[in-house]
Known about the structure:
Low-confidence stretches: none
Distance between the termini: 19 Å
Strand content: 15-25%
Number of helices: 6
CATH superfamily: Peptide methionine sulphoxide reductase MsrA
Largest sheet: 6 strands, mixed
Oligomer: single chain
Radius of gyration: 15 Å
Structural class: alpha+beta
Strand order of the largest sheet: 7-6-1-3-2-8
Amino acid sequence: MSKEVATLGGGCFWCVEAVYNQLTGVESAISGYMGGHVDHPTYEQVCAKTTGHAEVVNVAFDNDVISFQDVLDIFFTIHDPTTLNRQGNDVGPQYRSGIWYHGEEQKRIAEDTIERIDNDGLYRNKIVTEVTPASAFWVAEDYHQDYFVNNPRTGYCAYIIAPKVAKFRKQYFERLKQ
Length: 178
């Protein structure tokens, strides 16, 4: 087994985590914060937009089952990478699109993927996803972990996350955990 970690920010971490936890080859998807200048930030601090952190998900996966390229291809279909500091109604730098790479190979793959998607014209606008080195990862508070699974009937989950997850499940049905 070849374990690897990808750190991805695609808006609200609840959405990103809900998708990756369903994929074959993914061992875990943990919501947290990265890219800021405060140690042990809280959700309230991150939402106040003063720490510099983004909501991210650390995705631990078996590279023999799902490649980093596959992880990124899915990432670019589950959020809008063309809106700066925004995903739908979620606005602020904590919702920025980002790939925090763990090694030069991940950096190369991320940059090549963005260039390919832009060149293919998949989106009307250019991708604004930041590609930066991974820094300290701060695990989000317990109530953020498995949020969609634990709170499927809350408004945000029912109206925002559920449609994204349904689209993902349909598009990647053959890659879902059994």
